[in-house]
What does this fold into?
Amino acid sequence: MKILIQLVNIKKNYGANTILDNATVSFAENQKVGIIGRNGAGKSTMCKIITGHEEEDGGTVVKHEDLRLSYLEQHDPYRLDETVIEFLMRYCEKEEWECGKIANKFQLKNEILNATIGSLAGGFRTRVKLTAMLLREPNFLILDEPTNYLDLKTLILLEEFLQNYRGGFIIVSHDREFLKKTCDDTLEIENGECTMYPGSVEEYLIFKEEQKVQAISYNKNVEAKQKQLQDFVNRFRAKASKAKQAQSKMKQIEKLKKIEIDHPLSNVQIKIPQVDVKKSFALHCTDLEIGYPENLVANNISLEIAQGSHVAVLGDNGQGKTTFLRTIADDLEKKGGEFRWGYDLKIAYYAQHVFATLDGNSTVYNYLYKVAAQSVVKQEILNLAGSFLFRGSDVDKKISVLSGGERARVCLAGILLSKSQVILLDEPTNHLDFETVEALGRALKLFSGTLFFISHDRTFVNMLATEIIEVQNGAVRLYPGIYEDYVYHLENILRKEMSGKIVKTEETDPKQKGISDYHLRKEIESEKKSKKRKIEKTLERIAIYKKEYDEIHEDFIRRSESWSFDRNARYEVLAKKIEEEEIIWVTLTDELDAKENLKK
It folds into this structure.
């Protein structure tokens, strides 16, 4: 394949901090690459160097003359008072029909095209920026954290588009599920260097774990050999007859070098102080109405959530997820009805705007000490601060010098230390890196209290959710199914909308609606192909999970010292994932069989 972009020995420093150090990597046409790495590793910096928004301190960026590069704007290039179609025509210098054709890929049609951008929810505004990116007719895309703040529908549309995109792209994201579904190769940026792996993010992490195991085994052998040689030296270097041999052994010891093992991506561990849970309800709503003085968002909300539930609050952007969370957190006054929490429950609320209210003169440690429960000891505070990347002297930093993302992490750490029986989290993963998101997910999964959370990170939601509340079209209701069912349901709706078909009820007779046998057959064939693709993807996921599960299982049998709380938690997660995927596989194969029989 033609190489479109080459980075050769790239150096980038911010003051005394080295971000990229002789980083070398190339990207080919049609190559689809997911970029992973810790916060501050240089992922966004690399993207900015490629797009020209940052200048490298050393090295060379080589771009092929055929490269047509486009990227998702981080700032908003539109005016809020102009319509979608006016912005696209102005910004991209394209005809109206061209703009409309590309906009249709992201379900921007008719009344939305003629609506002012200021009247649109965040998810639709991102769709507008995606459309503008594509109207430049690129053959290579740069997408830096494209999933932040995206609602699930827009995320699915973006996924569908990227899966069928004929050019190449690089994506920076902390959402493992998103990277798994869209990228073929994985690039890790670590310690200023780049490692390209020809496989998915999950395959790469398994490979990296295998490399680590091999390195540990090699280092043990080196240590044993060094000890053996040192014993010889200690015994015989004083004897003249053996002095020459002892000197030779000393040289051998010097030549034996261990493999340096960097901290793996999965080494972040977050331990949340546990709380007491009663067998009672956590939240009870009766005819609750939510909204603002001038706007009713949803009404007739009646539901009950048991203590210990982990509830994902889902729905399109602008439908009222945050309004619902703010209302039950007593951050926003209800408009009618009632809600009540279970007896003597302590409630903590994390929202994106909360970090702006922190006292700038306080240090990170002083803030965490102040909000932590009395029973939490100093070491627990330091451990949790370290998990959120405040290590060593970082805890003595004043909050006034922290970035917005760092302040958000301080708030989140404080809430986890408060020992609240109920935690409400609004988009907790947006300022966290790949490893910390998954570590937070593992920790919250073990949290014994009640959790309500809004997140569009599917790996995170899938890991945590035991209940789903859907906020949509003025209603807030419990969804009767697991998260995978909900995603599958949305994909079906979007597929029908994209093909211009109306979602039909079971009672509808297609022929009475004027749909020809030919179109009906085409629809059935399309659905069959879709199910076959899903079955293949499901089997691929089962194979990946089983491989890692079997390796850990064999490790536990062969070497008892390989057991750890973290590995055992991963072992249990894999067992559950395999079971869930097998249920999905059975459901999909049954549905495919039904379609096959329908054809006959």
